[in-house]
Amino acid sequence: MYKYGKTLIKKYFDEQSFVDSDIGSYNDFMEKQLNNIIEENKEIIPTIIPHNIDEFKIRLDKIWSVKPEITEADGSKRNIFPVEARLRKLTYSAPTYIEVSAHINGVQRESFVTQIGNIPIMLKSKLCHLNKLSREEMIEKGEDPNEPGGYFIINGTEKVLITIEDLASNKFLIEKHASGTSEYVGKLFSEYGSFKIPHTMERPKNGIFYLTFTRVKKIPIIVVIKALGFLKDEEITKFISAEKQYDEVLINLIEFASIKTEEEALDYIAKRIGVTQSKDVRVERMSEILDKYLMPHLGIKKEDRIFKAYNLCKMIKRFLRVSRGELDVDDKDHYMNKKLKLSGDLLADLLRLNLKVLIGDLLYNFQRMVKRGKFPTIKNLIRDKLLTQRIYSSMATGKWVSGRKGISQRVQRLNYLEMLSHLQRVVSPLSASQENFEARELHSTHLGRLCPIETPEGTNIGLRKNLSLLCSISKESNEDEVVKQLKNLGLKVVK
Q1: Domains of the chain, with CATH numbers?
Q2: What does the pLDDT average to over 258-264?
Q3: Strand order across the beta sheet in which 93-104 lies
């Protein structure tokens, strides 16, 4: 058995590497996420434009990167390999280009391709010169033939992006509350682009279900469901539970039976959160808040409202079943309720933030020139060094989006095993100074996924973990494909 096991593991490492998941995540970032980030910021509309123009907008289109290259002092460009970047204290990065067009009164006037910045390239990724090289070719290029890759070279220093462990987004979890007015509390983190909006469901002693998200604090859920266009009490009751009626639901429906239309429900919520304008403005503003900030992962359009209402009904049902003891309370430390943010996700967060800074800089320079009575060309206003410097700075210092520190670390090279261990590190965002006993404990779902032994002693115990040898991290699945398969099995979509 030992002989066969040894052969299988050897075969596994002939085809896979310790850092395959990280490299896969980075490739996904370069191929898909880059374009998705540009899509989010596709149109840039200045507020100050020349008086003889009715409409002016800047469009960002396709974005792509080439393989790492270096521009020498004489202006010549050539390919650069990691060994040269280490020796000359350079950054192993690739120029990134973008298509930009300017539109005046709906007509395209200016279109060009420009460099938007330099993005650091992960060793052994698809854009790296070392990708798919044999051992002999690696030696020829001056590289270690056992080079695993999965890290970056910033100003000649090898840097690794540490995998972050976080609670899974878009998942409704119910936990028992030790303090507060509600015995059970339901939490959902709705993720849309760069936003992550926490939603809280609770039921105090009066039996009314309340929902809290962003500026909307403790609003009765039944009113929110009615505001989303799901008005009939009978249908709401059936949707929550068709097989058996819950008295708790009837109490909530009777309490707000006077609210009969969508408009009344929107106005009720608007008054509760302190919107003081006229009724029409209140209703419109409230509709906008519900579209944008209520479960945006389900959609931000008017037609998505009904699906949000259905989801709220299902959340109430689950909350009731847990509070009655029919279902167990969710375990936050179960690895099914966790997600790992790899290099690709971390770089996407960084780029998303810094792209907004670049767009802000572009708008400022454009509007400043317009005020002076000039009409500048867009090409001269894009400062590619701004984006490059900000990305390099974060990767060199480890200071990341949302105030996180220590995301980028210098690769430990004391020996080969320590290096592999560092490339497989997983860090919890919880504070080392707080107790958090449950989060630090070894969970049964860690076995086979995380090493049960390798964790430091002291304040970081249980918060700093390492992936197990044969662990591979699953990628995000394609929702459309899953829905298609479910429909083939007989799933019907409720309209």
Answers
A1: 2-161+342-429 (no CATH), 173-335 (3.90.1110.10)
A2: 89
A3: 43-44, 56-65, 93-104, 107-120
